[in-house]
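Lecture 7 notes: from sequence to structure.
We start with the chain below.
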Amino acid sequence: MTIARSTLAESLRELYQFSVVDYCVFALMLILSAACGIYFGFFKRSTGADDEVTPESSSSDDDESGHQRKKKKTTSTFGSSTMDEYLLGSRKLKAFPVAMSLVAGYISGVTILGTPAEIYNFGTQYWLIVLPILLMGVAVCTIYLPVFCSLKLNSSYEYLELRFNSYVRSIASVMFVLDELFFLPMIIYVPALAFNQVTGFNLYLIGAIVCVVCIFYTLLGGIKAVVFTDAWQVVVMFISVVVVVIIGTIAIGGPDIIWDRSLDGGRIDFFNMSPSMYERQTFWAVLIGGFFYWTSFNSVNQTMVQRYMSLPNLKKAKLSIAMFTVGMGVFVSVCCYAGLLLYGKYYECDPASVGLVTTDDQLFPHYVMEAVGKLKGIPGLFIAGVFGAALSSLSVVLNSTSAVLLEDILKGLFRVNPTPFVANVFVRGSVVVLGLAAMGCLFIIEKLGGILSVATSLSAIAAGTTCGIFTLGMLVPWSNANGALFGGISGALLSGWVSLGSQFAGAAGEIAPHKLPVSIDGCIEDLVTNMTLVNPVYPDEASVFPLYRLSYHWITPIGVLTVLVVGTIVSFVTGPRDLRHIDPELISPVIHRFLPQESFGNYGTTSRTADGPQANFCEEMQPQSSGSGVGSVPYGTTTTLGRSEQSPKSR
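Predicted structure tokens for the same chain:
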């Protein structure tokens, strides 16, 4: 009878295959992505004259003395003319495209396929993640962003050398590179899985297509191609999911029926107030763990900070993050509702139980083909959206990781100062090598199940540790390099121990996520003949080490708090930093009120002595005191005849 069910399942898949229209929609998405690379690599770039300007002259064509700005001739025959243009878009990008790029870069296929499956299997408690997303936006804009914008760094990890020392910077940057290498094959696997579900194409072949297209336009166009490709890809993503959700809701009979079926099936639960840290989804786990995870990733991760730095000033960066926060909240909500839609469709016939899907992450693509597969172009639009999510995430990772390899590994760790030509070749070569490495690691992901939790667990190790180190530097002014080193190592070891221990325990069958019950009572007879749905038997987890049983939501808080606690203690034991001599530019403005007044005489000294570009809009970070003396006027200004001017030296 298993053979009969398998044959029927194959027949159902053959019934809902891609049409010519679907293939055309999908191909159009790939062609447009490649075209963006060609456009920004060869047509929309600075090749004739780049303005060599000081910040004072950036708002007009003439300086105050009436002299014309100098023009610097640059020549380039391949892609962006300078590394600043290739990696940061010359810091002249617009807020809205960058916001859409932030959304597209964060929303990989993991979100589109993993989130609906999470709601289908575990209920709506995860939907509460929208609140931590909003809180994350506030935290990033008030604590972390002003520091990065003031320093105007090419890599976020440069801050760690300015604040602590080169060893801390090297550890964090190496951790970032390793994290992205682990996550790269995950990005490719998800769309390949979806495409395989609806076409039967080989996973490795699809992975190669994604990599080649992404490497092509990232290699040519740099951050500009990444941002503007992301901007239209996120529109495709959103439209693809919304169209499927709307058509599916109408087909079922409206949201009321979906809600009632989900309520009867125990899927509606927003306030599971259980204090247990072992439950996968609780109010506290989602609220606290979600805030730490989202803040860790979006506050200091190079993939995000690099795009913050591509904007001209702090105001534009805050506006971009505000739009990103709202956009993420809306998109995640749509994906969560899609999970309820799945249950409304399969509440009496679970596809996994009857062999129609083999993993949870195939559930949404299977639904698309079954529910709207007969509508020509809709499956193609959906798969184009999933692939768009993968392309945007992959391009961001390739671009930002190549920047870290150049700025933090080659220049920072090995102290090599390459010529512009060598730097160009190194960065573009890194993009190619990373893309190829992602394809080589693709087979690893096939051995892991549950895309959402696996991706979160792997990223949480690096995200929690690095965010903890940055937070230690920005919010604990007396912390020193020893505290950062010991705190960072402790946080990485503990969070890695918990995360990897959980993965190994799960692979050994010692622990398993407790899914909500499903039914096959409504399945057609050929699928369930001589088959009885037996309630799953979960292993006894009492003998499993307690840390391995923790919900994946708690991994990031463990990493961040471990770094802060250990780092603060070690800093006090080894000799805390003298706050009178610290540069307030390296400390978050929310802490400035607690710094001694003498310290503001050091404002900007670190960035003036460090290599690299100087701050162009640090006024919003500088102390604004009403009295005379230190801090009464922003650092770097001279008062002439009652008028304050920016001193060129301060730039």
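Points to note: The CA atoms of residues 583 and 605 lie 7 Å apart. The chain is about 60% helix and 0% strand.
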